[in-house]
């Protein structure tokens, strides 16, 4: 069993619990319950920050374009953007497919949950500012530009599933060597590893906290691997991160989601 934090549906507080990652069992008040029988809200409370081009393959995929306008050179600092509160949904919730848009990109990401106020943190100190880790799907409308990430492509309602829990820091031995897998309708379509990060977890915290403060409850995404899977209406998405857990959601038309047409 791993120490974890979870927010049950409709409850304001985040509860400390333990989970069996292999069998998807959550221990709630000394009662063991299968995750499929639980309703969970997102287990995070702060701002979620995304990072572009932090996987080696994602940067390599730009090729010579990285040296042309508007980039002119490879990034020398993290390329950040915000996933605002309207984007955040939980495990099992439907991801809204906007009208007139046929496909969405699934962005499998390890989320670093900040445990205490972090300003100008060194690499050696960075691990002490982490509360734990969670699974995040950084959803976006397919687009080519990574220069000044476009709000309308990344910040639509329901475009950031998170959860179902936060695994405490000490139970994740090495966040820089975690395999990430994406399954669409049960088929493995993407696999990568955080060992391929350009800026490992500690370095990313250092570089971001150099110019901005991260607060308890904030989530810093390590980035999204290259070749993000593309999905459409009715597709079921499962993102797995070894030692952290899995996150599942289904794509449904936004009108069906808003009218209550999705029950879980």
TrEMBL record:
UniProt entry keywords in alphabetical sequence: Isomerase, Metal-binding
Coiled-coil boundaries: none
Record keyword Zinc present: no
Record InterPro entries: FAH (IPR051121), Fumarylacetoacetase-like_C (IPR011234), Fumarylacetoacetase_C_sf (IPR036663), HPA_isomer/decarb_N (IPR012686)
Pfam families, per the entry: FAA_hydrolase (PF01557)
GO MF term (any one): 5-oxopent-3-ene-1,2,5-tricarboxylate decarboxylase activity
SUPFAM superfamilies: FAH
Fumarylacetoacetase-like C-terminal domain segment(s): 47-251
GO biological process entries: small molecule metabolic process
Cytoplasm in keyword set: no
Family, similarity comment: Belongs to the FAH family.
Protein name from the UniProt record: 4-hydroxyphenylacetate isomerase
Source species taxonomy: Bacteria, Bacillati, Bacillota, Bacilli, Bacillales
């Amino acid at each position: 069993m791993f120490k974890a934090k979870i927010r049950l549906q409709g409850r304001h507080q985040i509860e400390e619990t333990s989970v069996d990652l292999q069998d998807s069992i959550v221990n709630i008040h000394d009662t063991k319950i299968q995750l499929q029988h639980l309703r969970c809200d997102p287990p995070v409370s702060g701002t979620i920050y995304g990072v572009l081009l932090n996987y080696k393959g994602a940067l390599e995929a730009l090729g010579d374009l990285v040296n042309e306008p508007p980039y002119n050179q490879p990034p020398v600092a993290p390329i950040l953007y915000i996933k605002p509160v309207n984007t955040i949904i939980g495990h099992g919730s439907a991801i809204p497919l906007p009208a007139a848009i046929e496909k969405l990109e699934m962005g499998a990401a390890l989320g670093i949950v900040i445990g205490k106020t972090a300003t100008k943190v060194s690499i050696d100190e960075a691990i002490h500012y982490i509360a734990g880790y969670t699974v995040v799907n950084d959803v976006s409308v397919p687009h080519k530009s990574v220069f000044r990430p476009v709000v309308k492509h990344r910040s639509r309602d329901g475009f950031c599933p998170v959860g179902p829990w936060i695994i405490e820091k000490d139970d994740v031995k090495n966040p820089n060597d975690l395999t990430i897998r994406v399954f669409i309708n049960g088929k493995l379509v993407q696999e990568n590893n955080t060992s391929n990060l350009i800026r490992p977890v500690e370095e990313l915290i250092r570089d971001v906290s150099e110019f901005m403060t991260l607060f308890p409850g904030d989530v810093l995404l390590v980035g999204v691997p290259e070749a993000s899977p593309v999905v459409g209406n009715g597709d079921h998405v499962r993102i797995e991160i070894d030692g952290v857990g899995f996150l599942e959601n289904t794509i449904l038309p936004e009108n069906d989601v808003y009218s209550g047409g999705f029950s879980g």
